[in-house]
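FW: tagging you since you asked about this chain on Friday. Here's the raw sequence from the shared folder, copied in full. Didn't touch anything.
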Amino acid sequence: MVNTLAFDVYGTLIDTNGVVEKLTRHVGNLSVDFSNTWRNKQLEYSFRRGLMKNYVKFSVCTQQALDYTCEYFDVDLSPKQKEDLLKQYNDLPAFSDVIEALTSLRASGHNMYAFSNGDPVSVDAVLTSAGLRDYFDGIISVDDLKSFKPNPDVYHYFLEKSGADISHSWLISGNPFDIIGALNTGIKAAWLRRSKNMIFDPWDYKPTVTIQTLPEFSGYLDESLR
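HL: got it, structure written out here
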């Protein structure tokens, strides 16, 4: 059975902590905490923008979150240093298990899309840099709707744009809010729990399947067909 697979990009395929090495040059031993705060604020800003219906590109949320994080940690980065860090977001690495999983899923004939809060140009750039772009039939971005996940309209838009049958559609994401957003829309969802410290929100939703590595999802689909 051919499925249509929507892969979240940042935090699922692409390691946003790939910026830590460069951060270390600027903030020293604060780099990991700085990176985590930056990422959390980036997402918070997208949620708030979505609720306010005051859309800006995800890259603007990223930049404003960086400014916040500098203030939070009382770190004085120059405009050039900030620009350098923001450019890194287009050159982040893939997680080590991604190519193996995408290769297997592509060989099985599934329809595969990158589905992201990022704008199409940024997503294309980071996927290309990480060597992943050619695995996907296309990029579907919230930028077209001027909103952000987990707005239900975004997930319906994915189904419309991909031409997918909802009963054979999956979201694969490392972000619980994204998983809940998909389930709320009726799309099956695989939560990629990359760290045992990650907690799934105790709402009235449970992932269709929980995996610790991306290749496990390919194995799950293969098993379900037997």
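FW: The chain has a mean pLDDT of 95.
HL: agreed, and The CA atoms of residues 119 and 143 lie 5 Å apart.
FW: great, closing this out.
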